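STRUCTURE REQUEST FORM
Protein name: Class I SAM-dependent methyltransferase
Source organism: Glycomyces niveus
Requested output: structure tokens
Priority: standard
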Amino acid sequence: MPGESPVARFYDQLAADYHLMYADWDASMERQGRALDAVIRAGLGMERAAVLDCSCGIGTQVIALGRRGHRVTGTDISLAAVTRAVREAERRDVALAAAVADMRRLPFADDRFDVVVCADNSLPHLLDAEAVRGALTEMRRVLRDGGLAVVSTRPYDEILAARPASTPPQVSAGPDGGRTVTFQLWHWHDDGEHYDLEHFQLVPDGSDWSVRVRRATYWAVTQRQLTGLALEAGFTEPEWKSSEDTGFFQPVFTARA
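Status: completed
Returned output:
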């Protein structure tokens, strides 16, 4: 069951605080939605596509795309995240159909969507080629012929050259106007491709700080590896776009069903 997985637990724990990773979550939603909307329009020439976000989290990308006129559906492995996404969509007058689902087992008929989005480094939670290929095969199945997959990951080709041990701290507005500090510690496995992540949030708590720590494991899948797996899953016309090309905060991979 999705709720029993380590990834589901990670995002269940993070869902209430996820927005604190952004200096301004709504402004970030707007920027990300604008960038992904441009990718969809360029790829399909459609102003109002049927979009599935199969790792919707608390709604950052899917709500933004809904606000730009797309017909949006969201799924995620975390019940807490999906519940919050629905609530946040309602607050912003976005009609969001949503369900809890593993991206390797999507609860939809074949040929249902024009676009499937899997953004914000969600796919690398799957830790081997078989699992990633399975998720991409499901994305291909629910896309109509000619539809578009849009995936974003961290720039792992660059990261693998350095294998950093941490991320720089980010400071954002927290509860009651206080500041929240977010950073990550990365512990690389001996294989050099996987790492355990400890996600720290320091939240003001009166005159002290409350420290919240969540843990997850990732596969630092390269662009070449992901491209090959997408081709094996039945996609064509694979293309990587840099952040400079799209305005999105991560490299974006697109492929045609």
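Reviewer notes: The first helix runs from residue 6 to 14. The mean pLDDT is 95.
Form closed.
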